[in-house]
Structures are given as C-alpha cells and as structure tokens.
C-alpha cells in the first residue's frame, strides 16, 4: 500500500520525449512549471507553494520547503494536476531538452533517490522534493554538481530528465565506479559519493577532462547521462561566438564568412 498517489504512465518519443500520466478520479500529479504539454478535459490545475508533497502543515514548513527548492534550482511553486472528472484522465509533460525521461519507483528504490539539480520533471502527489548536502568539503567544492543536490523521497513514482542516452548501472557492495561529475544523473541512498583528484601534471594541464572526477561506491543503483546540459550549453556558446567562429571544412575561415554575407 502506497502513501503517495498511485499513477500509471507511458513515455513517448526518442530524443525529445514526453511522459503521459494517467489519473484516476481525485488522483493528482505534481510537475515543475513549464513542463506541461497537454491534458484531457476534467483535469484541474492548481499552483502550490513548496514541493506539493502535502506534508507541510504550517506556513513556516511551506516556506522552508520552498526555500529548499530554490537551493536546488527549482521553482518556488509546483503545479498540481487533479482529475476532478469521471473516469481516467491523462496529462502529459515534455522534456526540456534532448535526452531521456527516467521513471523512478521510489518504493522499489529504498524510498529515496539523490539526483542532480534541475533534474526533476514530475511525480505523483506526496513525493517530497528536498535537498541533499554533500558532507565532505572536497565533494562540495569540486563535485561539479555543487555542494547541494536534489533528493526525492516517498513511495510513489517520480520522473527525472537527463541529457543524451541514459545508462542504469547497479553497483555491488564495495564496487567503485569512476565517472565525470557532470554525467551523474541520480543514485540511490546507499551509494557513497566522493570526489577524487585526477593527479599528474600532464593530466591536469592537458587532459581536457577536468581535474576531478567522481567516485561512486556501492551498493546501489546509478543513472548516468552521456550529454550533461552544461556540456551541451558550452558547445553551443563556443560555436555561437562570433569572435571565435570557424567554418568546418573551409580553408577560408573568417574570409568565407565575409563572402557569404555573415559578419565576424
């Protein structure tokens, strides 16, 4: 028996996915503002202050919940979608950039999953969205994802989004996985997260992969993405820079830009 609302879902698409959530009468899904795509008639939208878990009873509790969401890069408010009609109704939420939507059944994952900031997309009502502090200073300063990560708690379904292709890896007890910090999407509560220095002057100066990488020690599950949004944004900015523009395959370079009418 779940305490959170029990919802059904289907995920559509390949590179730009969306998730369709099916709600029974009086069931509710919560989602980040801006993720809404479409819904059936008979679903009521309601903006809620905090994380929408329904566990905050006082104003101070709601303020604290909202403050935690700000720290992990989320909005102060969430939107609740409740089926107030007869029969099943459907509401859909779209991914914000190319990648995959990952369904997380928290009841089967120890009731808690830690994920990168901005990863949360939507969930069943009752799932609490909070913060997870990295206890070690080195992890906080050099972890790539920062000192604060996001945690999802409860026994319902939650959906997070990741960039590119997503791999789920199960780590045995004591098994260690070394990974680029930006490629971590989420991991279960039993996984120990730390940061390790790459080492070596050549690696530091010329490696091109950064000075630190993450070490994840099992037991538990880890979700890994191939295209962190920070990496994608960096490439777009680099190629969009007019002062450093290069024409691939062209020996004319900036002269070619001038000839085809573009400024540089």
Question: What's the quick description here?
Answer:
By secondary structure, this protein is α+β, with helices and mostly antiparallel strands. The protein has helices at residues 59-71, 137-142, 201-206, 229-240, 254-259, and strands spanning 8-12, 18-23, 28-31, 36-39, 43-49, 77-83, 89-94, 99-105, 112-115, 120-124, 128-133, 148-153, 157-163, 166-171, 176-179, 184-188, 192-197, 212-217, 220-225. Strand 1 and strand 2 (18-23) form a beta hairpin.
Describe this structure in words.
It is a single chain. By secondary structure, the protein is an alpha+beta fold. It folds into 2 domains: 8-164, Double-stranded beta-helix, CATH 3.60.160.10; 232-264, no CATH class. The chain has helices spanning 59-71, 137-142, 201-206, 229-240, 254-259; strands at 8-12, 18-23, 28-31, 36-39, 43-49, 77-83, 89-94, 99-105, 112-115, 120-124, 128-133, 148-153, 157-163, 166-171, 176-179, 184-188, 192-197, 212-217, 220-225. The strands form 4 sheets. Strands 5-6-3-10-13-8 form a 6-stranded antiparallel beta sheet. The chain has a 6-stranded antiparallel beta sheet with strand order 11-12-9-16-19-14, covered by helices on one side. A hairpin with a 5-residue loop joins strand 1 and strand 2 (18-23). The longest helix is centred in the first third of the chain and has 13 residues, at 59-71. It is globular.
């Amino acid at each position: 028996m779940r305490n959170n609302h029990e919802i059904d879902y289907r995920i559509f698409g390949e590179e730009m996915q969306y998730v369709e959530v099916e709600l029974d009468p009086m069931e509710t899904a919560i989602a980040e503002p801006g993720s809404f795509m479409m819904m059936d008639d008979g679903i009521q939208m309601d903006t809620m202050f905090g994380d929408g878990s329904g566990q905050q009873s006082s104003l101070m509790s709601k303020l604290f919940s909202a403050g935690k969401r700000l720290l992990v890069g989320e909005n102060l408010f969430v939107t609740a979608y409740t089926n107030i009609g007869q029969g099943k109704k459907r509401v859909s939420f779209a991914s914000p950039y190319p990648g995959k939507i990952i369904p997380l059944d928290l009841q089967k994952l120890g009731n808690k999953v830690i994920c990168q900031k901005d990863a949360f997309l939507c969930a069943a009502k009752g799932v609490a969205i909070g913060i997870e502090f990295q206890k070690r200073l080195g992890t906080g300063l050099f972890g790539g994802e920062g000192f604060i990560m996001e945690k999802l708690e409860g026994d319902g379904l939650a959906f997070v989004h990741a960039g590119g292709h997503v791999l789920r890896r199960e780590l045995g007890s004591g098994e260690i996985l070394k990974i680029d910090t930006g490629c971590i999407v989420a991991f279960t509560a039993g996984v120990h997260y730390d940061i390790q220095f790459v080492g070596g002057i050549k690696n530091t100066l010329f490696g091109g992969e950064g000075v630190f990488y993450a070490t994840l020690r099992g037991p538990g599950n880890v979700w890994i993405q191939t295209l962190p949004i920070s990496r994608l944004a960096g490439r777009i900015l680099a190629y969009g820079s007019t002062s450093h523009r290069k024409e691939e395959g062209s020996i004319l370079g900036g002269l070619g830009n001038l000839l085809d009418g573009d400024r540089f």
